[in-house]
Amino acid sequence: MKGNKVIIGTRSSDLAVGQAEIVAEMLGKAVSEYEFELEKIKTKGDKILDSPLSQVGGKGLFIKELEVSLLEEEIDLAVHSMKDMPAELPEGLAVLGFPERVDSRDALVSNGDRNLDELPTGARIGTGSLRRTSQLLNYRPDLEVVPIRGNINTRLEKLTAEELNLDAIVLAAAGLIRMGWKDKITEYLDDEVMLPAAGQGALAIEAREDDEEIKTLINKIDDQRTRYILQAERGFLERLDGDCQVPIGALAEIEGEEITLEGMVATLDGQKHLRDQITGSVGEAEELGIELAEELIAKGAEKILQQARQETDK
């Protein structure tokens, strides 16, 4: 950090920049002695748009270049979507803070303003997520899921592209809300239909582990409730060795001092679908995530995930 100027690294997409601006605004309100500046960095995940994430490297594609900039001290902190964060981080870096989570749900955006249950038999729904694909097909096997990639603007444009002939697309509600596009949402998908990705709707702030000044700054906007929730969901995901190649969903909710975690694994076609939940103390959030994963493993989760990986490798 040079003087009182803090450089915040972000992907160059409109949504990522918007998220970084939200963090900058939160930090600015928390302290008055610093100046915040955004550094937009194009990542490999932003450049490869013609292949599914499961085939080109998964989550790390969206953060690697930002992490290199952190390690080379070109930026002071980086803002990521939590669901893009891999389990392993480069030595010397750490996720130091989590602002309060926004809506965790998935959202349906449809042509003709029709809800999921109102879409015709054989309706074409666009998504690049294996998790969303499997749950859509589990709920409505008649649907035709069309793989689409791109930033939030691009995917919304694809909804009206004549060559794709889509009836609807599914996106994270949080992204639409942060972009100021809440009015585009046709339906918030119920958790019973669509369990979100671990960490969906949450932001992660990554920085150099030994940068005490930045660590103190980030701590001012860290939300403990969100931290507990993410510990549970990520504990579940990481025990299952989850990545973009397998359909895994997780959602934790806190009431008082108790946290309830629901988790799901499935095959790509949605025909094999395993789901359960666990409740315990918020102080044991990560351990509960691991325990729920162990319970699903005992019920056959590893076999289901192995089948899903084999199908994505074809």
TrEMBL record:
<dbReference type="InterPro" id="IPR022418">
    <property type="entry name" value="Porphobilinogen_deaminase_C"/>
</dbReference>
<comment type="pathway">
    <text>Porphyrin-containing compound metabolism; chlorophyll biosynthesis.</text>
</comment>
<protein>
    <recommendedName>
        <fullName>Porphobilinogen deaminase</fullName>
        <ecNumber>2.5.1.61</ecNumber>
    </recommendedName>
</protein>
<comment type="pathway">
    <text>Porphyrin-containing compound metabolism; protoporphyrin-IX biosynthesis; coproporphyrinogen-III from 5-aminolevulinate: step 2/4.</text>
</comment>
<dbReference type="GO" id="GO:0005737">
    <property type="term" value="C:cytoplasm"/>
</dbReference>
<keyword id="KW-0808">Transferase</keyword>
<dbReference type="InterPro" id="IPR022417">
    <property type="entry name" value="Porphobilin_deaminase_N"/>
</dbReference>
<feature type="modified residue" description="S-(dipyrrolylmethanemethyl)cysteine">
    <location>
        <position position="244"/>
    </location>
</feature>
<dbReference type="InterPro" id="IPR036803">
    <property type="entry name" value="Porphobilinogen_deaminase_C_sf"/>
</dbReference>
<comment type="function">
    <text>Tetrapolymerization of the monopyrrole PBG into the hydroxymethylbilane pre-uroporphyrinogen in several discrete steps.</text>
</comment>
<dbReference type="Pfam" id="PF01379">
    <property type="entry name" value="Porphobil_deam"/>
</dbReference>
<dbReference type="Pfam" id="PF03900">
    <property type="entry name" value="Porphobil_deamC"/>
</dbReference>
<keyword id="KW-0627">Porphyrin biosynthesis</keyword>
<dbReference type="GO" id="GO:0004418">
    <property type="term" value="F:hydroxymethylbilane synthase activity"/>
</dbReference>
<comment type="subunit">
    <text>Monomer.</text>
</comment>
<dbReference type="InterPro" id="IPR022419">
    <property type="entry name" value="Porphobilin_deaminase_cofac_BS"/>
</dbReference>
<feature type="domain" description="Porphobilinogen deaminase N-terminal">
    <location>
        <begin position="6"/>
        <end position="215"/>
    </location>
</feature>
<feature type="domain" description="Porphobilinogen deaminase C-terminal">
    <location>
        <begin position="231"/>
        <end position="297"/>
    </location>
</feature>
<comment type="similarity">
    <text>Belongs to the HMBS family.</text>
</comment>
<dbReference type="InterPro" id="IPR000860">
    <property type="entry name" value="HemC"/>
</dbReference>
<dbReference type="GO" id="GO:0006782">
    <property type="term" value="P:protoporphyrinogen IX biosynthetic process"/>
</dbReference>
